[in-house]
Amino acid sequence: MLSQRGHSRELAEKARRENFPVASRLLPRRHRDHLMAVYGFARSVDDVGDEERPDDRLRLLAEFETDLARLYDGQVPVLRPVRALARTVQECSIPAEPFHHLIEANRRDQTVTRYETFDELLGYCELSANPVGRIVLHVFGETGGDHQARSDRVCSALQVIEHCQDVGEDYRRGRVYLPQEDLRRAGCPAVHLAAAATSPGLREVVAVQAARAGRLLAEGEPIVASLSGFARTAVAGYVAGGHATLAALRSARYDVLARTVRPRRARLLAEWTRVLMTMRWPGAGLQRLPSA
Questions:
Q1: What average pLDDT does range 71-79 have in this prediction?
Q2: Does residue 154 lie within any of the structural domains?
Q3: GO molecular function terms here (predicted)?
């Protein structure tokens, strides 16, 4: 088992591979610590759902759920990622529900491996991605107004973008997150997802999902203007990561099998600056959200 220092280094390295700055050094230490505690929990649960022996996954996920119950009952958790949440949960008054939803998303991954429509995929994002944004809002004490709905748009967009990047990796794990109706419409059978190069049909399907994610991101982006202080800086970084990754997908012409598509740091920084400058004032870019 890794030491605490080794575990922290491994977690930091995983965070650096994300599309967006998980806990930027532009933020105060207390916020970085809280965000890394949340990331550590989410990453650990995802790793259980993806990397442990299939026969062990549901049992291990149940252990996380039991340990969360310990934490919220005022007991000392057993699992390191849950113990690391204790101060964050207490200081930021974070409810248990979004953490349980993250566990449920990984439980669903063990039995649901295909999604017929994009709306069904968004239903999965309600468990796998949106809870993270809601937790982040608690970290910064920004839970009022339209924040939650706009955060959900941003988080769903980021999840769909990641699915676009990881088509081959997901398929090797037995999962297809690209909507089945879109794959059929493009004449793209499952065998295309295992190829060494991305077929024209598969590129078309990835491009459709990327466009949908872009619209979700645009709908959620005005949250930046409605936030204050360091919350605005952090969330602008997440939005910028989405835009930078969409740019990388376009630049790669949606070829997600022959190469690893990741955002360029320079593009991320440029997008981060743009989002902050564009969304400087409350109300900037705000419009009525469409119904979910």
A1: 97
A2: yes
A3: squalene synthase [NAD(P)H] activity
